[in-house]
Amino acid sequence: MVPSARKVDQTAAGRRLAAPRHVRYRRAVEFTAHQDQMALQRLRDQGGFNGDRIADCGLATVYASGSDWLKVTVEKTDLSQSNLAGTRIREATFAHTSLRKARLRGARMERVELYFCDLNEVDASEVSARRAKVHGSEAMNAVFTGAQLAVTRFEDTKLYRARFDQALLVRVVFLDSRLGGASLEKADFSGARLVDVSLRAANLQGASFAGATLVGVDFTDASLDGADFRGAVAIGCRFPAGSSP
Fold it and tell me: pTM for the whole thing?
C-alpha cells in the first residue's frame, strides 16, 4: 500500500525537525576569539561542553556551577573568578588558561590535565580528583581544604602557602625538575591524611603537618626547616638524614 501524501509530508517534517537537534547537541564545536557569547550559549543549552574546543575566549566570572565538561580542550582562555562549584570535568585539558580565584568547590575531576595555568587563589576545597596532572602552573594560596586527591601529580608548580588541611592524598606526587623539588613553602597539611605521597626534595620550610596522618610519605632530601609536625602520626615514612617529626 502506498502511504498517503499527508503521511509522507509528516515523516519528512519529522526528519527536518530532528536534524537540527542532533547537530546542536551532539557535534563538537570549536569556539575561538570573539565567540564568547556562542560558547556561553552552548554552556546554557547543554549544561556543559562535550568534545568542544575553547580557545582565546574571555569567560571570566561565568556561572557554570553543576555543569558537565567532557573531553573538552580549553586553551588561552580567561575563566578567572568563575563559579565552577560542583562541576564534573572528565578527560579534559586546560592549557595557558586563567582560573585565578575560580570556585571549584566540590568539583569532580577525572583524567584532567592542566598545563601552564594560573591557579592562584583557586578555591578547590572538597574537590575530588583522580588521575589528574598539574604541570608548569602557579597555585599559590590555592585552597584544597578537605579535598580527595588520588593518583595525582603536581609538576613544576608553585604551591606557596597552598592549603591541603583535612585533605586525603593517596599516591600523590609533588616534584619540580627546575628547583630540585616542589615549592611548598608554608603549605598547610594540618589534619590531612597522606598515603604513599612523594614529597622528595620538596621545599617545605614553614609547612604545617600538625595533627596529620602520614603513611609511607617520602620526605627524602626535603627541606623541613621550621615545619610543624606537632601531633602528627608518621608510619613507614622516609625523612632526611638526622631529622624526624
Answer: 0.86
